[in-house]
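Dear Dr. V.,

Thank you for agreeing to look over these. As mentioned in my earlier message, I'm a first-year student in the group and I'm still getting used to reading structure tokens, so any feedback on how I've presented them would be very welcome. I ran two proteins. I've put each sequence directly above its structure. The first is here:
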Amino acid sequence: MSIACNEARRAGDNIAQLTDVASLDQPESDERLTIFTDKTGMVKAARLLLSSVTKVLVLADRIVIKQIITSRNKVLATMEQLEKVSSFQEFVQIFSQFGNEMVEFAHLTGDRQNDLKDEKKKARMAAARAVLEKCTMMLLTASKTCLRHPDCESARINKEGVFRRMRLALEQVIEIVTDARPSAEGEIPPVSIYTGVQEFKMKVESLRDSLHVLSKEDLTTMLEVILEHTEDFTDSAYTSHEHRGRILELSRQARLELEHLVSVWMHTQTLKAKEAPEDMELAIIKTCQCMNELKRELHGAAALLAAELLKCHADHLVLKALKVAGVEGNLEAVAGYSCKLSEQKEQLVETCRLLRHISGTEPLEITCIHAEETFQVIGPQIISAAQTLALHPSSKIAKENLDVFCEAWESQLNDMSILLREINDVFEGKRGEKRTYLSLPRPGKHSANLKTVKAVKLDTEEQTKIAKSGLELRLLTSDMDSEAEKWEDQENEAVRNAQTMSSMAYSIYLFTRGEGLLKTTQDLFHQAEVLAEEGLRLSSTLQIFSNQLEDDDKAALLLETEKLPPICQQLQTMARSPVQGKNTTFMKVDTAVQKTKGIMMVLLQILPIYCKLLKKYKKVKSCLGSPQNWNENHLQQMAVDEDSLSGKKVNSVNSFGVKSLEQHMANLTFLESK
């Protein structure tokens, strides 16, 4: 790289000397070389510059690829450690390292995705990154469930499924960045009907220009391949009788139209005509019209089926019933609802397969494949998670694990509805906006203030940046949960404050994905302001507690605690400041996410120290034979009274698990008061 850069610099210097304007004013007797006197030198310098810059770009590309491969290898190595871990304490340490490595991998692959020019590769990369992002949280709860219930077979199966899927996604990323051929397990299915019809029509219409451009066997084979794929529709139990009959009729008509076209075509060739006569032109038009009608019928059948399925499963009744049966420990009911979920899964998988045929573009086709694979994998994982909960109905982490997988299912249904809308837009010719891949966050309406709520759409680069920050924030909230789980006294005021702040940070993470209750930027800024207030309250509590400590201990606690008020005040000021325009609104959103990350990082430094000093303080008091810590209890009572007066509700966190979506929503009380 250094050699290539030096070559480029030398070539640039040569060109600069040859094109120096000042040298043109010198007399010719000076015999200075210029662009006019040394054209050969100019050509050589230009070629050297082009060659060296090309080398720099190629080497830079190789370095990026090597960085991604190295990052992937680190993730795989840590995953192997996570699989073998046997204690919760060891798991927390390794998962923290794993989280940092996943964030690094997300940054590298996100930048690479933006640099890709091939839309097909970009869509595959987006799908793989979506799998990795969702599986990171599944891996957390599935592993913790396995640690809590090491002898449970269904928990082991559940965990192994997550690890297997992550490894496949990591391998797919490497295949894309190295331009390697897909493995047998990840091969792209045959050409879709939509693509097949488009290619067939192009071949038919090419007969206008040349009667000898292809053979009749080629056209017949192409049509038969298309009609063979239509059997996916006609053989499906979910295709209506009307659509099935119409598809079969149009398939028969397409064969007849092609036979007529071939007949006219062969006759025209015998006449040695230079261009297609009227009867052949008519045959070409009728053949293409028939194929368009077939394509429209197939689109109608698949789109109608998908819309009906999404509407039918919008209430998630089976998932809710599975959760209830699991909590009740009713294995028989779990088995019954598992069968219903399996039926749902088969319907959705087949619908995704049909949607792929009429998707219209390669990126949408790959997204259909991703949706199909997701339903295929998550369905059995939900069932294994429900079985684990039914076997251990009192296990909070088993319930948490089931919630995580159910959320993934619901999220994929939401993605599928967006996918259906995009397919319909392509079919209707609506291609005005840049495509947004489903692995990137899908923000809702954005506004600068409540009075004038105006939708602001982030472009792909902005979405990627917010998505990266969101993933980092999600991992920080997980670390916070793990830290809080170590506390014996879950009602401790500092712990409750930290849990509430973690819950708010999680809601901000959901916003970066276009999910949760925060729908507008104003919602986000209000949540950030409440988070800052909670942080200042926690800081005050810790400072009062520090007054009861010895000088060295007090200094150690205050050293970390004093970092909290400034960043909370910065977030508070930023949240209250008005903004106008898309760019400034995005910058404010990004700042809010970054400041929230900063607060969570400070909390992760404070809590372990506070925990250690509180234990020491209680031990000293106990040794002295003193009663319960009056000051601490008094502080807690004051805080409880303050919360009750303000109408604030503080939820505790399920032990040994990440907070469920319901708990995060419950903490967003400000939205309910709007």
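The second protein is here, in the same arrangement:
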Amino acid sequence: MSPETITRHEAPGGVRIYRLPIRVFPNLTANVYVVIAGDYAALVDTGSGLGDSDADLRTAFAALRSDWNERLTWTDLRRVIITHAHIDHYGGLTALRSLTDAPIAVHELDRRVLTHHEERFVLARRALAAFLRRAGVSSAKQTILLHLYGWSKNLFRSVDVATTFREGDVIDDLFRVYHAPGHCPGQVCLQIGDVLLSADHVLPQTSIFLPPESITLSTGLDHYLRALRLIDALPDIRLALGGHGAPMDHIHDWIVRIIDAQEQRLEQVRALCREPRTIAELTAALYPGVNGYEELLALQKAGAYVEYLDMRGELTIANLADVDLDEGVAPRYWRG
């Protein structure tokens, strides 16, 4: 089980929220939440379904009975809510179906990832391949990175979704929904009184993965910053519980840090683009030394920054004539 321990938090009306840290990848832990209100219980996120993730979830769930005196079984769950359709948060649904038939709920923009997973994987992989070519990544490295992208996702199989929700909905008279795209199209934050389940939108860190919208609609920096300001405007949030990491007592302070970090990255890109550079070259300068899956994430983050500046007319393509003549030529962005 994860070396992190289960923590219990309370929301108004006697609502109990348990944070279950689950190992989702070899070097990554994610938080699954069990929310109990009277005889109602819901599971928020499921882990990845990879490696030790399913075993960690079962062990942590059992500990709610043995260590926290909760009379709760898998069959008592009334709802399974997915905060966003990234594998480290929904991949556990496959094993979970043998434990509970609680209906699954997800934002409408992430529904297809769960219900038509194989289709979505093929199309997303194709869009990613086009991005890597456009970024100036070599053919050999493209093959490696696309293999890394698919190694976990092709293990999941589509599941039925009972309910979709959108901005402003209230799930089961308990969870108020705030749509927070950028990191993922259908990502949501869920408010329970003065407690916010902030998913991967607000985390106790300033480095957030943001793919460009050219790969997936409703992602990217513009959506992310707009949604951050939406959450920052919420009154009376006492506690935020993210999809990774420790609880956050001062969500406003974290949002300020995150926005500052994004603005600093944009300034770095502006400075680097005094000379024409491909997205791959920008990635090497922004994130020196990364490799493997971390390099794949870094390329997409760099692409999101370029996209943000390019859409605002701050960048131009220095080698436009070559790009026009040959689709295999990667654009070189600069501030000329």
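From my reading of the second output: The domain at 7-116+158-262 is CATH 3.60.15.10 (Metallo-beta-lactamase; Chain A). The chain has a mean pLDDT of 96. Does that match how you would interpret it?

Kind regards,
E.
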